[in-house]
TrEMBL record:
Protein name as annotated: Fatty acid desaturase
Organism for this UniProt entry: Corallococcus macrosporus DSM 14697
UniProt entry keywords in alphabetical sequence: Membrane, Transmembrane, Transmembrane helix
Highest rank taxon of the organism: Bacteria
Taxonomic path: Bacteria, Pseudomonadati, Myxococcota, Myxococcia, Myxococcales
Residue intervals of the Fatty acid desaturase domain: 45-276
The UniProt record lists the keyword Disulfide bond: no
Residue stretches spanning the membrane: 12-33, 40-61, 128-154
Length: 307
């Protein structure tokens, strides 16, 4: 199938709306339990549940960035903004970064799994293990707040013309923010802050409970964010895996593990991605890729020119 096929695939708008409401309710319940349970083991269990159901919210946010959460653009973006608040981040910023990822996937700007000639190996490893450990998640909400409060700060962090800016992708990604409406990002950051504050007040959340839940989510979310690309072909559309994982986990993540199918057909809603998984292409297990990542980045292999 060509990359353009699937554009007429119907968007499951009603199902998406129901899933978003249910997932957010499950997130709120998990936050409450993690804050109010007397036994620490129950708190940890609640945080574990949160780490999965908030990935459902994130998967729906991902749908919104591609405009396939709802067929009406205004509704799609409104739901995306609410979903982004549970990350928490700005929907406009997330969309800019994610669509940039599709443009640069597996190019020299996104080869975090390989040591390229001239790379700073300490910086490469630091970035790599920040992804694996969940620290990577922290940069998203902190970055959104930083841009909202001090827009010029991120411009200075781009590292334009430096090895740092190219190796980390900071120049390419932060540069995208110069073409997006800053007022929209600031409004969405305020919305996310209000929703988070509203949850904290209404559910009487404790700092420990909130931190446990979001630490678990950060680790769970970060684990998949590069496992679906690590060691894959250096190709913009084919540089991803359709990972094998237990079906219930894949359902909770709304087929996010079918990532090669998504990169080849980004306009196909999550519900139908299974139809676009190529049975003739290798499908490694998520666990195997994830475990191999802990050994760190590898030397860049001799490969054809990136495409």
């Amino acid at each position: 199938m060509s990359a353009g096929e699937g554009r007429e695939t119907p968007i499951p708008a009603a199902l998406n709306a129901v899933l978003l409401v249910c997932a957010m309710a499950a997130c709120a319940s998990s936050l409450w339990l993690a804050s109010h349970a007397e036994r620490f083991g129950v708190k940890v269990l609640a945080a574990g549940v949160f780490s999965f159901v908030n990935n459902t919210v994130f998967s729906l946010l991902h749908e919104a960035t591609h405009g396939v959460l709802h067929p009406r653009r205004r509704v799609n973006d409104a739901l995306g903004r609410v979903a982004a608040a549970f990350f928490p981040t700005s929907f406009t910023m997330q969309r800019a970064f994610h669509l940039n990822h599709h443009r640069h996937n597996r190019t020299h700007l996104e080869q975090f799994d390989y040591f390229r000639p001239g790379d700073n190996r300490f910086l490469k490893r630091a970035q790599w293990y920040a992804i694996l450990s969940g620290i990577y998640w922290l940069f998203v909400p902190v970055g959104a707040v930083a841009f909202a409060l001090v827009p010029g700060l991120l411009h200075r962090l781009r590292g334009t013309g430096t090895r740092y800016g190219e190796q980390t992708g900071a120049d390419a990604y932060l540069g995208r923010l110069e073409s997006v409406p800053g007022a929209a990002i600031r409004a969405e950051v305020v919305l996310a802050a209000c929703i988070q504050a509203g949850l904290a007040v209404a559910l009487e959340l404790s700092l420990v409970g909130w931190c446990l839940c979001y630490a678990a989510f950060a680790i769970n979310w970060s684990a998949l964010q590069y496992a679906d690309h690590a060691w894959s072909p250096l190709h913009v559309r084919d540089g991803a895996w359709d990972l094998r994982v237990a079906a219930p986990v894949r359902w909770v993540f709304l087929n996010y593990h079918y990532h090669r199918a998504h990169h080849r057909h980004p306009h196909v809603p999550w519900l139908y991605l299974g139809r676009y998984v190529d049975p003739d292409v290798t499908r490694p297990s998520f666990l195997r890729i994830w475990l191999s990542m802990w050994r760190g980045p590898r030397p860049l292999p001799a490969t054809p020119e990136e495409r």
